[in-house]
Structures are given as C-alpha cells and as structure tokens.
Amino acid sequence: MGRGKLRIYLGAAPGVGKTYAMLSEAHRRVERGTDCVVAFVEHHDRPRTEVMLHGLEQVPRREIDHRGGTFTEMDLDAVLARRPQVALVDELAHTNVPGSRNAKRWQDVEELLAAGVDVISTVNIQHLESLGDIVESITGVRQQETVPDEVVRRADQVELVDMSPEALRRRMAHGNIYRPDKVDAALSNYFRPGNLIALRELALLWVADRVDAYLTRYRSDHRVSAIWGSRERIVVGLTGGPEGRTLIRRAARLAEKGAGGEVLAVYIARSDGLTSASPKELAMQRTLVEDLGGTFHHVVGDDIPAALLAFARGVNATQIVLGSSRRKTWQYVFGPGVGATVARESGPDLDVHIVTHGEVAKGRGLPVARGARLGRSRRAWGWLAGVAGPPALAALLSAVDLGLANDMLLFLALTVAAALLGGLLPALASAAVGSLLLNYFYTPPLHRWTIADPKNIVAIVIFVAVGAAVASVVDLAARRTHQAARLRAESEILSFLAGNVLRGETGLEELLERVRETFGMESAALLERAGDVEPWTCAGRVGQGRPVERPDQADVDVPVGDHMALALTGRVLPAEDRRVLAAFAAQAAVVLDRRRLREEADRARALAEGNRIRTALLAAVSHDLRTPLAGIKAAVSSLRSEDVEWSEEDRAELLEGIEEGADRLDHLVGNLLDMSRLQTGTVTPLIREIDLDEVAPMALGGVPEGSVVLDVPETLPMVDVDPGLLERAMANLVENAVKYSPSAAPVLVAASALADRVEVRVVDRGPGVPDEAKDRIFEPFQRYGDAPRGAGVGLGLAVARGFAEAMGGTLTTEDTPGGGLTMVLTLRAAGTRPEHLLPPEEPLAEPERQAS
To answer: Which residues contact 318 (CB under 8 A, 6 or more apart)?
Structure first.
C-alpha cells in the first residue's frame, strides 16, 4: 500500500475557519462515498463547528491520566485498526499528553500516512518552527507548540483559510470564537489589529512561496521557457566574522520574497593568502548557506570592493548584502570602508543592502597586510621613519644636550621602529643615515666626517649591527607569517577538493568555475588529446577570456598526465600557486573520467532497455498478435470451405471480422514500429505550421461514431507540429479514452490557447488512474487495470508521449473532476519553436509520408 496524502488547512490565527473548512471537506467526501472518519477534532464549544461534526463517524478518544487529571487524546491504534480512507486530525502542532505513543501530533499523522491513510489537518502560521522568533516579536508570545516546516512543506495540498482582521475581530466580538468572558482580553492582546495584519502577511507570504514552488515545477514539467516573473540573485559579502550568519539569513529571507531567488555567499581572500578570518567560522557559514539552498564561493582579490563588484556582475546579481562596518570611529581615517565603496560604485543595476549586526563598531584588530610580506602602506611608513626620521630627530636634539650615549639610544630606537614598520631595508637606511648624523653632529670633532675617539667607532658599529639584526628578525617573522597563512589557505582549498572527491558532487564546469574564481582568471579550460600527434580538443571551458586551443596559448597551463592539460588565461600566476593548481587539475581529470563513466553507464542502460523492448516485442508478437491472426484465418477458411453454403448475411459478417482483424493488426504493428523508432532515436519530425482543426478530425477515424465530442475553436493559433505524428498521437489518446470511458459518457476532445502554447485535453469519464500509476501508464507494454487480452500491447500512450516530446511538446495526466482521467497534450504555438526543431533548408520527406 502506498503512502497516504496530507492536506493541510493553514490559517493566520485561531478562529479563521480552518476546522470548519476541514469538516466541510469531510462532508463533501462522505457524500461522494469516501470512507472518512474524525480521528480528532476539537470544536472548542463553537456551535457552528460542533454542528458540522454531526453525520461524521468519530473514533473514540483515548483517556490518559496525568498528574491527577484525565485527558483525552487521539487513539492512534484505534484509527490504524479502523483504517479509513481519510482521517481528520485537528491541530497538527499539538503536543500530546505524556504517556502517549508520540510526543507530537504531527508524529501521529506521519504514522497514519505511512499506513496509507489520507489525512486532513489544520495548523496556524505561528506554529511553524522557523517563524517562532518573528511571531514572538510581533505578538510578544513565544509559541511552545511548533511543527517542523518540512512536515508542512511535504503536504500534498496546503490551502490557505483567509479572513480579514476586521472580520475576525467581529467574529470574536460576536462570541463565535471564545467565551464572552474571554473576548475583551483577547481583542486587546493577541487579537489586536496590528498582530492580525502581521500574522496574515506571514501566512500569505508562506503560501505564496509554496505557489512559486508549484509554478517552478509546472514550468519545468511543461517546458515553459517564457519568463513569468523576475529572478532575484543576491550576493552576500562575507568577512569571516561572526556577523556572516546574520547576513546569510537576511539574504535568504530576501530571496524567498522573489520567484526563484538565489543566494551566493562569497568570501574574498587576498592573493598573498594573509587573512584574519577564522577557518572554523567560514566552515560554519558555508554549511549554513548550503543548508538554506545557496552556494558558497571563494574568490581571490587584493581590492575587496572591486573583486566583490566584479563577482556580482559576473554572476548577474541583482542585490548585494553587506554588514555594517566593524571599524571603530578613528579607523575611518584610513578610508571609507568596503560597504561605502561598494555602494558608491555599484551603479544603477545593483542594489546594496547594509545590514546591522551585533559586531558593529567593535573593531577588526590591526589592518591586514596587503603586500607580499608587510604590505605597501606599512613599508611606506617604514621608509618614512628610516629616511626622514633621523634628520627630524637630529633637529630635535640640536636644542638639548643629552650626551652621546643617550643620542645613540634615541637613534637606535628610531631604527628599531623603522624595522618594525618596514622590515630590513628601511631599517638599514635608518641605521646608515643615523650613523652619519651621529658622526657629523655628536661625535668629536663635531661637524666633520671623522671620529677622534676609537670607542665611538665601536659604538656606531654596534648601533648599525643592532638595527640590522632587529630588521632581519622582523623580516623573517613576516616571511614566516606569510608562509603560514598561505599554507592555511591552501589547506582549506585542498580540504574542499577532497570533500568533493568523496561526495562526487562537483561537475566539470562547476570545478573549472571554482578554479577561475579562486585564482582570479578570465577563463579556464580542460584540454585533451588522444595521442602525441593528435590535435587538442576542449573537454570543458568556462569564462569570457580568449579561447585556448593548445596549452602553449594559455597564460598558465598545468599538465595532467601525458594527454591532458588545465589551461588558464588572464594573468601569470606565481610558482607557489601551481601546487594548488595541480590539485585542481588532477581533480578536473577525475571529474571528467567520472562523467564519461556515467555516460557509459547510461549507454549500457539504454542498451539494456533496448533488449527489454525487443524481448517485449517478441512477446507481443507471440501473444497479442495471435488473436487477430487466428480470427482472420478462421474466417478465410470458412469462406473457402465448399462443405458449407453461406448466406449473404453470414458472408458479410465473416468479411467484417476479417476487416476488423486486419485493422487491429495494422494498428498493433503500427504502434510496434513507432515504438521501435522511438527507442532507436530515428523519429525525425518535419515541423510546419498547421491549424489544429485540420488534424483533429482525422484522428477520430478509428473510434465509433458518436463516442467523441470535438471542441476545437476556429480562433486557435496555428501550431508548430508534424501533422503525421500529431495525428497518430491524438488517435492513440482518443482510442485509449474511448476504451475506458462508459458508452453513455462520450469522450471530450477540447483545445484552448494558453500564452505561447496550445493545450489539447482528452477527457474521459472512466475509472481514472491513481496518482502512483500515472507515470507508469506511459511506459511501454503497460495496460492499466484488468484490460483483456487483445485490448492492445500497451504501447499507445508510450508512442503518444514519445511523438509529443519529439515535436517539442509534453503529454501529462490530470484527474477529471467528478471521476475519470484527462490527457493534456501541450503543443507550441506557431513561431515559438526552438532552433533544434526548425525545418531544414530542403525537406527530407513529405509530411504524409512521414506519418506513415
């Protein structure tokens, strides 16, 4: 038995009529003969709701003793033993009394669904787990009873029970929701107009999100290419700080408000690998954005605003989300900051959102170096201290006499400061300039470039040596810091690659895009060749740079084995980057091999399917074709017999039997040949513009007169189809519908225009098809129900869908209201066909011949 279906009535607040709507639906189903019971419904002493329970079978509740009191809960075992078709379970988010089998009522509902019982339930928007914080901020009340969002999202149907706040408050005032003694308190607290308006908005937005999901699936199933709404693509700029999680959640909420919104989180690292970001925090943010359905990107760039804007424009983003600066007030003297720069340079096409967070103005620590070791600004200050500092100090000391020892210590301190700021060379410059000034101004004889006392020579030598030593230590420390940071960045990238290898998630194009983003290149391509003298071919390429046909044309190329290379254009990378690039290249080769193995597996699967089809064809020939052949042979033998004198009526009846058997053979053989052509991929439609009313009547030739009602308006636009394939597809659909529809209820074939499509609906009033079997009826050699032998080999619908897809259309099923099945054939209106369906310059065959 399959899983049951869940239908949920969603409301913005108590009293909007969810339970009433659920009971009304139950009465409608009972009137149609559905076995429906009330598993648990709480009417809350509301007279109209209580009246709706009359006439419905109620499963007795289970009594549970808890803390000296007796409580009633849904008797799950009794409902499972009763096993109805539909069970009504009110208040999905309810917490069961301790001692029940499950802690939550939604867990009871899951057991009913698993047992094959359809469930109709109710829930208020404030009980959704993800909205708990928002509802508390609106109403001031923390909801203790919640249900996971995924439980509601998995429901087969979610119907919004809506009511304006004014109408709900009137219902409250009339005593239709709570007892009169509670009305005033409710109206002045939870049921205030502002609360109800905000809760109603939450409910509408949540249901709108579900509608967007249904619409996306519908567009995908029906191959609708026209744009029906705007698509928001939101880039989140991350710094690696704790505020990143707030920004990601904010961007996710922005994306949910638009159709098909997408979140791309990007962390920009400097090319030298130096970063103040926490790897643990970045890993947490990567997990968060992926859990919310977004993607995480790691980009290299020294100019963070420029790199962020380039990334946003490269992915066609519409919005950028940044956090308020963590700088302290005095740090703005170094520049306006990333947020202000991005907002100024974003242009009219990019909206920039600056989001506040708990880390605003708490400081970011020391500025991160930008150069290869100490950074340009830091080296500039070092040179300033080393070259301009000694003359300034000499001018200052000219006013006071501190003695040679103190003067040398002050110059030594200035040299150490130059070393700490700029490293080795500024310190040596400071030592040299300082020693000259000490010699000229402070070492006897004064104002001459000579030294009288040998002890002073030793002091100056020590002074220069100490300055050089300190500068060497600072330079070595900067070198080691740079190497450590770079190795950490490399390890993060290699860890990402290893994870993708284990999970097998990344495709070749995605991996090449990651290479291009990581190293800031214009394009990336994977080249390969079959042998040493064979030409290079491109296995995959991303980016907008110049095309590369050979590795030697690229700015950077990394060989992978003997006959494969990763080629990048944009700039020349330093040698130290090639280690990580080699890992990317090896991973790209693995991904390519995996893709080819998957293609081989698909081809093997297709061959196996072909073998299955051929086996089934033989079975069909040996069984289903035998009946009409036997009937034809028996009739012919009877006519040729000389022992019997046949009357004209008998002779006509035998000839009619021969004709019917031949027609059945022709139909079966035609479907077998069509299925064989579809399986081998030899169906080539000859698309041309045609009126649907030219083809539709011809498709009704094989059914009894009066069994089909045709409704094709003359105002329909022309369609781009192959007339022969369309006639065969419609004939199969109509014959299948007539076969299962009662003789008193003719099949309806109706056509209508919808945007750039034309829909042909074949409606029957037969027994219908369960949802779990709707896809299976389109498989070859499938006949739904107990179709008798001789009713066909089960190829009609498979051939019809194959022909529809070959013409760029679709064939789907729907339930006919009131019972039955509706086949929906969607065709492209004239002038909207894709390039691969455009007609060739010289037609390959006449349409009539193609139809045969």
So the answer is: 231, 232, 233, 234, 349, 350, 351
